[in-house]
Automatic annotation (TrEMBL):
Coiled-coil annotated residue ranges, if any: none
InterPro entries, sorted: AGP_Transferase, Aminoglycoside_PTrfase, Kinase-like_dom_sf
The protein's name in its UniProt record: APH domain-containing protein
Chain intervals for the UniProt region annotation (Disordered): 390-425
One Pfam assignment: APH
SUPFAM superfamilies: Protein kinase-like (PK-like)
Source lineage: Eukaryota, Fungi, Dikarya, Basidiomycota, Agaricomycotina
Organism: Mycena sanguinolenta
Amino acid sequence: MALLHADDFAFATQQVLSDSAISALFTERLGLLPTRILASPSQGAFHKVYFVSLGEGSNSPWSGRDVVLRVARRTINKVKTENEMALLRVLRAAGIPVPEVVFFCADPDNPLKYEYNCLERISYPSLADTWPRLSPAQLDFVLDQSVDIFIKMWSIDVPRMHGSLRVDGTSGPVIEETMWTLPDITRYFHAAPYNLTAETFATLNPTESYTSWPAYICAFLRTYAHVVAIHPSVDWLRDLLPPLQRVITILATDSADMPWVRRLCDTPELLPRLFHRDFHFGNILADEAGSIKAVIDWEFAGIGPSLASRASPTRNILGYFRTLPASSRPPNTQHLIDTWEAAFLARLAERSPEIASQWARELDRATVLGVEGGSVYYCPPLFSPPFSNPNDMHANSLPGTERPTRVPASLPRDRRARGGGLGVRPKWKQRKGLIGMSW
């Protein structure tokens, strides 16, 4: 929930594991000795990535093959790794191009001291590198495949709970990129001058899966209220606690007293579905003709409602295009921004009219949420992503949730409230809201 810190990227620049430790791991897990171990030239904030070439062995299907070893920085223990590994197996079974799981360990209390996973290596570049060289027909082919992937994901039978997926196929705890991670907690709670050493991952984040959208929202609001109540950096928000507690009480109340809460619990348009939540060209590997070979980076994929800001694959792709500097954009960038979403929806309607119709209904936030649900979705303003003017806050239309006082000008910008909706900017922005979530 904080801006990504420089130390978050430093992990992947270190020699996290020695070659001998990696060799011992593969010998133990596969009975194969690596012939080459190379740290990837491109590293992210959550893993140290190694490319490993395996030697020959008569009894292993991975004999002589290339794999990817990803060693996880300690951020969200167990849930993140297990969710991604579980999803990769489900997605692969559904015919969606994803890397095959070789092995993994979701418990950091192992001899290596880190969670890790090993995946099949897909030796193709990302579309982020190659799309400017694709012809219009090849880009249309990419769009066509994206529609196919969407339809297959829509049809996957996952637990209809707001949360993640466990390896046994049951619902797991909510996972969001905007949650307070272990380094965040050390940095922004335990350290001086805060000294809030009693805080843990469980006190600062929801740790369950949820049967309904109101229950999901309520769980996050409780954690936000807790942070506001204890943290000196947001003590100026404490006037909002009484109205916030009223909102929480309303969402958790008996449905007989609040019919609109029951409607939000029961409406099929808020049925949780599986979404990648970061489906953009940087996470799509393809050949020179635009044939998609793999979709990667599923660690923060999850199960939630379609109206979420990051659920739409086309909006993720368009968000990626919009981040490209105008001065260096390929000539066809604006054309894609202007046409891609409409073309996706039209193609979806041709392929599967029923899914297209249901998707359109689920995307209609105003109709799905109604006035009361919309009030919860958009307000109070502190539960939302970064925006340019922290003082431009929405008033909440629920009783007792009036417009808050103006943000003190002296407060550092990364400690001010975030406005807009319950969502976060795509990960390529490399920032997280102080108090915000993806759905």
